[in-house]
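aldehyde dehydrogenase (NAD(+)), pasting as requested.
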Amino acid sequence: MRSIDTIYINGSFVRPHGTESAPLFNPATEEQIGIVHLGDELDVDNAVRAAKTAFPTMSQSSKAERIAMLQSLHDAVAARTADLTDAMREEYGAPASFIGFSVPHAAGAFLNMAKTLETYEFRRRIGHAEVEMRPAGVAAAITPWNSNYGFICSKLATAIAAGTTMVIKPSEMSAIQTQLITECLHAAGLPNGVFNIVNGYGHVVGAALSSHRDIAKISFTGSTVTGRAILQAASATLKRVTLELGGKSPNIILDDAELDTVIPQVLAAGFANSGQACIAGTRILAPESRLAEIHDRLIQAVATLKVGDARDPAVRIGPMVSQKQWDRVQSYIRLGQEEGARLVGGGEGRPEGLDRGWFVRPTIFSGVNNDMRIAREEIFGPVLCVIPYRDEAHALEIANDTVYGLQAYVFSSDVARAKRIAEQIDAGRVVINGAPHEPQAPFGGFKQSGMGREFGVFGLESFLEPRAVLS
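Structure tokens follow.
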């Protein structure tokens, strides 16, 4: 059993001052595989002090120096691809398709930001003013468990590009993955204090960072409830805040869609990361004229999806991250039936043949209206709702009738038509016909899906402040 008994401060692995610990589990077997010793407020103070000390030099670094750091970080992470894959599979249980994206994405985040940096102008002339984009100050990143490597690396990459230093609080549930990625980042040889990583509970370490007087910028990915608490705590010192929060994404099938192609893509969007994704397309909006056909195709397709241990490359849906998350998803499957929705696939309990592990049967509800809680609340598991619509206007009304607005999906055989629909959806991103991820495009949400943007120039500028000198 692993014991994670260090945090990372000022370029060294050190024992935390905190005395609390948390168990670590393999979600596919429910077996405890480790324990992590957690930091506390004093550890946060030490980490912030290190970042603050390193900030003046880092803020004056050249673009070439920052690009070199990003390249070194990429190389160090890429060098341990196999180890990172194994750790994510054991501690998180994600299917091979998701891990196969996540690990290269983590390393690639540094190169993507280096590419952004190459052409970015930190100084520009506007009339008779010289405008300089300066690092906002010491930053904090608070990251979730559903893509541990990716969130740590993408937020750190942006901080490095901006010329700022950072303290990172990852999820305590991902400590084995965190230990490994920290070893990679350490091997890159960055100056001491440029990045610091403190394991800890959100209500302890996360809260301390959110209110710390020497933190100027917070980048958070997680639930909307936690995002509100961070924003409230940060408001006392007017910290700059980027929040990437929950979602209840519409997955719109237009009536001209070629279902042989579209149905697998719709399910891929809905069951992304075993359903544990803020961008999952969990509301399938289907035209009434083709509802029966779409139901039949969905039922047939779901029946072919393999659920199980991620060591099997044929598995498409892995376990929920914890017993608590499994219980939450089960409660929503019960709720959907109580609300009057009809199960057309899946249901409560584990899939047949799996008597251990936090596995959920991939579930599809029909007869759903957009006022039901299963259609309005983020479930964060492999549970989809099919909602019928009459025409385009009705589909858009349903799509936008949500407190969220992170990502949406549109499927049509007519791309121009799909784009016309996309332009009317209130979401930070709209994906047409399963288009691939674009790392230079902004990512973030409308409404209660967050504020601010990540990736590319938009993400970089969220860590910068403009200063104008008039002459």
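Note for the archive: The chain has a mean pLDDT of 97.
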